[in-house]
Amino acid sequence: MVSLEESRSNSSRFPLARSYQYHSSVSSKTQRHIGRSMRTIRSNFFQDDTSSCSFTEKSTCLSENLTDSVVDLRLGELASRNNKSGKSSPAEEDLLDLSQAFSDFSACSSDISGELQRLATLPSPQKSDFSGEAAPEPEAEPCAGFLQRESFSTEIIESISPEDLQPTVKICVDGLQSQSVAVKRSAAAKLRLLAKNRADNRVLIAESGAVPLLVPLLRCSDPWTQEHAVTALLNLSLHEDNKMLITNAGAVKSLIYVLKTGTETSKQNAACALLSLALVEENKSSIGASGAIPPLVSLLLSGSNRGKKDALTTLYKLCSVRQNKERAVSAGAVKPLVELVAEQGTGMAEKAMVVLNSLAGIQEGKDAVVEEGGIAALVEAIEDGSVKGREFAVLTLLQLCADSVRNRGFLVREGGIPPLVALSQTGSVRAKHKAETLLRYLRESRQEASTSSS
């Protein structure tokens, strides 16, 4: 094992080759968050200063649910299913551990927009004018009184008896075919609620023909109708047999349209719906090929905290396919991921590291992580991150440096040896093992550099 003292005295024995033009190209946003350690501690260490590093653990991230995305419970089930399949290789164990960053401590709720109180109380965009003329009487709709009830709520939904449920669903499905936007909006809202908590309702609604009628509403110009439709499809997608039905109805491209054009809530729920559909392995490639990655990256850049978490989770699931890793790198996903890694305390640094680790599985991803200053941000995470965050950071650094002497040089230049030594002595069992492995790579590179220079 390398001691902290030894790491300081030997740092100059591992010079960077003259041809390396490494720039720690972390954005100005990242620099503000990680300036103390990166600009002070590591620069001093590089100059053989004897000041000590601080390894204060900030574990506040872990007090927050690791994700708000609605199908996290499914990811947890998949993880535990894999866990029961026998002994795993170290690489599989690492992947399982990464997966649980998106499933541990999660609450599963099919409808998470927080907008339920206004489902049936939104004002219709069709207002009567005040010119003195009476507004024309709207054409009567079948069962319009039921669909236009303003007090329709979760409590009413839960109180519907089983024998009344089928007629209720039929009224809503018929309402989706109305010429009135207001009736369509109300029907979609009520189907959204009916599918929220009850699995048997999801089956009945799908069997009643709602899915092909909801999909066109994803492109409705009325934002509330669009929101109810996307959330209803999200809730329906939580039933396994409905996933293929939704995909076959052409929902994927329309969900991507919502990702680009919808309200903040609609975008979040569209991302979650795509995540739910991506739990079917063969859907991952088609979702990526349909253009889902760029708008997910946009949500990662400019969404709310919940939107960013949903984008992270969906990207993680989609990027288990190589082509989607390439698409994510091309769409510019690495830069915002590196910035999120640097934002300790937001509850997203760990998830961002997990997605970075996935993208670093291809050479284009490795190059992008290094180019965007990812090594510096990951070293910072080892110094100041949570316990789990340190594990993810060292695992990603190991992936970047295992086969690259060049990246090992960048890691030394960023002052990575002292925090790695500390992690190898005080981290979790997994983190200690990964840190020791990475330090061994660095030691071998120093020895090779010494031999070649003598």
Short description:
With 454 residues, this protein is mostly helical. It is built from 26 helices and no strands.
Outline the fold blueprint.
Blueprint: H1 4-9, H2 28-46, H3 72-83, H4 90-99, H5 144-147, H6 154-159, H7 162-176, H8 181-197, H9 199-207, H10 211-214, H11 223-237, H12 240-248, H13 251-261, H14 264-277, H15 281-289, H16 293-302, H17 305-318, H18 322-330, H19 334-342, H20 349-359, H21 363-371, H22 374-384, H23 387-401, H24 405-413, H25 417-426, H26 429-453
Give an overview in words.
This protein is an all-alpha fold and 454 residues long. Helix content is 64%, strand content 0%. The chain contains 26 helices and no strands. Helix 2 (28-46) packs across helix 22 (374-384), helix 13 (251-261) packs antiparallel against helix 14 and helix 14 runs parallel beside helix 17. The radius of gyration is 26 Å and the shape is elongated.
Going by helix content, strand content and strand pairing, the class is: mainly alpha
Cα radius of gyration in angstroms? 26 Å
- Please give the alpha-carbon distance between the first and last residues: 25 Å
Shape: elongated
Could you tell me the strand content as a percent range? Answer: under 5%
